Amino acid sequence: MEYFVYVLESEKDGRLYKGQTSNLDNRVQEHNSGKTKSTKGYIPWKLVYFEEFETREEAVLREKYLKTGIGREFLKRVLIK
């Protein structure tokens, strides 16, 4: 099974949301349908970055990294518009 770490950007105010899932398309759709309490106030969301992993443990560790200061700096460099 594949696991994904993903980053969404709110088209409403530009904030970023980081998460992990085994079904990327379905998860993005859940965020945009308001099913996720923490993101429903900032709909619509667009997928701006993702990485694929073989295990859930790897994905969880990478998600935690992206939520650190160093991880946020990495995303700033990667997501330069």
End-to-end CA span = 32 Å
Q: Helical segment tally? A: 3
Order of helix and strand elements from N to C terminus: EEHEHH
The gyration radius over C-alpha positions equals 12 Å
Strand share of the residues? 25-35%
Low-confidence segments, given as residue ranges, are none
Shape field: globular
Helix content range of the residues, please?
A: 25-40%
Look at the helices and sheets and give the structural class.
alpha+beta
| Largest sheet: number of strands, sense, barrel closure | 3 strands, antiparallel
The count of β-strands is: 3
Global mean pLDDT: 96
Main-sheet strand order equals 2-1-3
Provide a short characterization of the protein structure:
The protein has 81 residues and is of the alpha+beta class.
Provide an overview of this structure.
- With 81 residues, the chain is α+β, with helices and mostly antiparallel strands.
- It has 3 helices and 3 strands.
- It has a 3-stranded antiparallel beta sheet with strand order 2-1-3.
- The mean pLDDT is 96.
Sequence-ordered SSE layout with sheet pairings:
Elements: E1 3-10, E2 16-21, H1 24-32, E3 45-53, H2 56-66, H3 69-78
Key phrases:
single chain, 81 residues, alpha+beta, 3 strands
